[in-house]
Amino acid sequence: MMTSYIVEQALRSGKLKQTDLVTVSQNAWCRGSGTESCMYLPLNSQATVIDILRGIVIQSGNDASKAIAEHMAGSEAGFAKLMNAEAQRLGMTYTQFVNPTGLPDPEHKSSARDLAILARAIIRDSAEYYPIYAEHDFKYNGIKQGNRNALLYTDPTVDGLKTGHTAEAGYCLVTSSKRNDMRLISVILNTHSAQARADHTRTLLGWGFGSFEKAVPIQPGAVVTTAKVSFGKADTVGAVLGAPWMLTVPRGQQVQATVELKPGLEAPVAKGAVVGKVVATSNGKPLGETPLVAQADVERAGLLLRTWQYVAKWFGK
Fold it and tell me: Measured at the alpha carbon of residue 232, what is the angle toward residues 231 and 236, in degrees to the nearest 5?
């Protein structure tokens, strides 16, 4: 998942192009031993980046993962440094990557929470490429292989993400499902079979959608409050949400929203500048927060008006 995420972000930024050719080295080449998942790229052949990405996502191709790692960073170890830097940026605090494939290593580890964080990042940041995670099969080099995520074939609300299996980790599945505009991500690790990971995921998603609902504490576009501005042509500016805000909360739970404005706000204030935040709580426990931004520009007042405002402020008027 991290390997595909890094490839997707490189495509988005222009560091990679879909048509760039990736060479399959002796190290990356999969010998077809049956002990690992492969895209079956021929030795010393070249494949496009977009085919490599599909091979990673749909077929769990270790050969594809190694080849793109060498293409982007010179080696698997070099690519692992990119992976760890990205994990740190995303807040994956219990993760350490050693290779781009996920094959066993004593130092290679992650957690269910961290994998959910990564899944969320893929969905949020890789919109153009996320549909690949829902594709049922992919054919390359004359070999057609199906996506191992069984829920893609049985639950129309499931649109990703990734299966995994090693003897050490067991059968694992990270899944995303969207129902009635609410998306949930589930992570199942260390089950005993492909059927078990699918069954546990169905149970977990069923519980999640039955137990939680989306809440919109404040409607987009609504003026939440008015912020005082010093030394501006206007004394105040409307504060609105910087972006639509939705929370996932237990069903029937009441949500309270409190406003915290930045103290000592002075002009000039640009439209969209952060002027505070809204904090959502329930039963005294924090649920989340989102920025408040200025609804309009506030220009700095002229010298005469600023002087008057300063004097008025000095005398507490």
Answer: 110
Average pLDDT over residues 193-214: 96
Q: Which two tokens stand for residue 175?
A: 């899944």
Reported as half-sphere exposure (CB side, CA atoms, 13 A), residue 140 has a value of 25
What's the half-sphere exposure (Cβ side, CA atoms, 13 Å) at 166? 11
pLDDT digits (tens, 9 = 90+) for 112-165: 999 999 999 999 999 999 999 999 999 998 999 999 999 999 999 999 999 999
What's the confidence (pLDDT) of residue 305? 60
Band (176; pLDDT cuts 50, 70, 90): very high
Cα–Cα dist 17/9, whole Å: 11
What gap in Å lies between CA 170 and CA 174, rounded to an integer? 13
Task: Compute, in degrees rounded to 10, the torsion defined by CA atoms 146, 148, 153, 154.
Answer: 160
Measure the CA–CA gap between 259 and 288, rounded to whole angstroms. 12
pLDDT at 172: 97
Given 142, 168, 183, which residue is the final one in a domain?
142
Residue ranges making up the domain that contains 154: 148-213
- Residues with Cβ within 8 Å of residue 28, at least 6 apart in sequence: 41, 63, 66, 67, 70
Residue 6's CB: how many other CB atoms inside 10 A?
22
Are 132 and 166 contained in the same domain?
Answer: no
Is 174 found in the same domain as 113? no
Backbone angles phi, psi at 260, to 5 degrees: -125, 115
pTM of the model: 0.85
**Peptide bond connecting 82 to the previous residue in cis, omega within 30 degrees of 0:** no
